[in-house]
Write a structure and sequence with these properties.
The longest helix has 4 residues. With 757 residues, the protein is mostly beta strands. Helix content is 2%, strand content 46%. The strands form 17 sheets. Strands 36, 37, 38, 39, 40, 41, 42 and 43 form an eight-stranded antiparallel β-sheet that branches. It has a four-stranded antiparallel β-sheet with strand order 1-59-58-57, with no helix packed on it. It has three helices and 66 strands. A hairpin with a 2-residue loop joins strand 58 and strand 59. The radius of gyration is 30 Å and the shape is globular.
Length: 757
Amino acid sequence: MRLSYPFILCFYCILFLPLVSPAQLVPVGNWQSHFSYNSAKSVEKVHAKMFAADANLYSYSVTENEYTTYSKVNGLNDVNISFLRFDAESDILLIVYENSNIDLMLGNIFINIPDIKNANLTGSKRINSVYFKNKLAYLCTDFGIVVLNLQKYEIKETYILQQAAEILKIKSLTSYEGSFYAATSNGIYKANENSSALQNFASWVSISDKTNDWIFTHHNKLYCADADSMFVINADILQAHYQSGSPIYNIRLGNENMYLCEKNDDRRCIMILNQNAIPIDSTFGINPNDVVEWNNQDLWEADEWEGLIKLTNRKDKSLFNPNGAFTNSFYSLTQSGEDIYVASGGDAGWQPSFNSGGISKFKQGTWTWFNRFNGIPNMDSTLDITSVAIDKRNQNIYATSFGGGLLEIHPDKSAVVYKNNGFLLSQIGNPGATVLMDVVFDDLHNLWMTNYGAAAQVVVKKADGTWQNFTLPFPSSQKYVSKIIVDDSRQKWVIGARGTGLFVLNDNNTIDNKNDDQMRLLTTGTGNGNLPNNEVLSIAKDRDGKIWVGTNDGIGIINCPENIFESGCEAELKIVKYDLNAGLLFQRESINAIAVDGANHKWIGTNNGVWLISDDAEKIIHQFNKDNSPLPSNEIKSIVIQPVSGEVFIATNEGLVSYRSEATDAHESNAELLVFPNPVPSNYAGTIAIKGLVENADVRITDVAGQLVYRTKALGGQAVWNGKNYLGQKPHTGVYLVFVSNADGSESKAGKFIYNE
C-alpha cells in the first residue's frame, strides 16, 4: 500500500528535517522510582563505593563522585531493607529485607533467594544478622541458623536449636578457636564447627543463660553484648567489660577499633573502642543506625534523620544522599502543569499523625522540599499536610493540614497560615484544631476546601481574597468530609467521609448569595443516588464530564452531572465482563484512587494494585501489582498523571513510582511532533512514541519510498508503535517518515526518524 499524491509531495521536504528527540524522556512502558533518601537503616563499604539502604538501596562512588539508586525498577526484588553486609571473599553484597527475602548483588547483577520468605513456617522468620565464613553466609533467624552457599546461590542446610518445645531465636553467630558460638534467646551456646551434626541440638552446649544480641571476635578475643553492656568471654566465662551510656543499637568492627551505635531519646552517639574494647572517642549530634569504617579516622554512618553521612575525622558531618522526595510517606498527589506535588502526611485513622514531611515538588526530574527543615515559616506547627493546590496566577502553593488550617506559601518561601478565621472553623469539640482535608481551584481562581468535622464543611477563598463557607445537609451530628472536585458546571462534589455518601453543592455561580444554592446527598439505593456503597473513597471527573465515584465496594458512574438535581439522575452501576464472569464494576474492591489520562482511560488504584481500563470501562488494558511490576506495594494511596509526558505517578503506602503510559494530553496543533527514541537503537524491544499531537490524530509511518509501514490513531496527544509492520516483522534499517493529521486535515505535520534493525 502506498500513500496518496499529496503525501508523496512531502517526502522531499521532510528528508531534510532534523532528527529531534527528547532524550530525557522515559520510554513508553517503563517505570521510575521516586523514593526518599533522607533516612538510612544500614550502610556497607563495597570496594570504593558506599551503599546505604532503607526502603530501597543506593550507592555513592567515592572515587567518581556519582550516585546510583536501586529499586524494583532496576534490579531489587523487594522493598524495605533490613540490613546490608558484604562478604569480601565471595565479592557479594547480601541484601536482607524485613520480610526475610534476600537479594545477592554481584556487580550489577541481582540474584533473588526467596526461600526463607516463602517458607511455610509458623512464627517469625526474621533474619537478625549474618556471619560469613568460607563463602558461606550463616543467617541468624528467629527459627534457627540458615546456611546459604554464596557460590551456588542456594540454601545449604538449616540448624534449628530447640530446647524442649521452644525454638531458640538466633541473634548472632561467630566462630572462635574451632567452635561456633551462638547468641540466642535462651543464652549462649557453642558447638564444634566441624561437627557433622550441627542440626542436632545435642551438639550445642550452653555456656551462659544470659541473653545477648551480639557475639563476635575481634583481635583474637571473644565478645558478647546486650543493649546495656559488653562482655569479654574467657574460657567460656562472661566478664563485664563495658557499660553503655544509652542502649546499644548496633555494633560494627573495623581494622583496629569497634564502633557502637548507642541511642535513646536523650543520648545518641557512636562510641569508638580500641582493639582492647577501651573507649577512646565518641561522635554526637547524629542518630546512628549503622556505621562502617573507611579508615582509622573516617567513618560512614547510616542515620535515621539524615541518611548517609560521612564523618571526617570521626566528627565533621557531610551528607551524601541522592535527590529525592523528602519522605516515603505519601498521603496525596497533585498535578499542576508539568509539576507533581506530594502531600507527605495526613490523618492516621482520622486522628493526627504529626507528620512533619510537608510538601515535595517534582519538576523536570528534580525534587525540592517545603517543610520545617528547610526554613519555611509556620511549618513547625502546620503538620499533617493532606492536599496541595497551586494558584496559576502567582504560583502560590496552598496546602491543607489535618489540624493546622490552610498554609499559603509564596514563591519567596514566605508563608501565611489561615485557621479559625470565622470561615475556616475548628473541629466541633476540638477548638484547637482546624482540620482541612482537600483543596482545589475552580476555573475562576476560587479556592475550595473541605473543613472536616466543622459546623460549615465547605469553605472558599474567593479570587478577590474574601471568604465564604457552606453547611452541607448532613443527616446526623457527624460532619465529616474529605475530598472535593469541581465539575464542568462548577458544581462542587464533596465526599462525606466515614460512610456518609457524596454531597453535591451548586452555588449557581453566586457564592455569596445563599438563597439560590442547591445541595444534594447521594447514597445507596434507587432514588437516593444509587451509589455502590456509602463509604466513598475517591472521585474523579473524566474528559466527557462524567463523575466516577470510587467506594469500598466498587465504582459508580454519574453520566448526567449537569442534571444531578433533577429526578432520575443517579449513578450507573455498570456490569462488565473481565473474565469468565460478569459483575459490577470493581465490586468488592476498595477504590482508593481514580485518575483520567489523555485518552479518557481510567487508572484505578485499589488495595490490590492498579488497573488501567478503557474509557467505557469495558476493557482492562493493564493490571499492575507488586508481583508483576515495580510497584512497592499493592496498597494504592493516590494517582496523578503528568499530562505532557503521560507519566502516571502512583503513590503507595511503601513509596512512589511512575509509569510512562501510552496516552498524553492532546495539543492544539501538531507543531511539537517528536519521536522517541530517535534514532531507535538496534535490538530495541520497547515502544516507540510519537508525541505532541492533536487529539486522536491519524498517524502514518512509511519508508522513504512511500510504502506504508504502520498506521494508528493517537491516544490523546500521543501515538505508540511496537516497531513492527502489519506482518509482525521489524522493518530494515533506514530513515522512516511520519505523517500526522487531524480529522479534517487542517492540522497536518511531517517528521522523520532513523530505525536500526
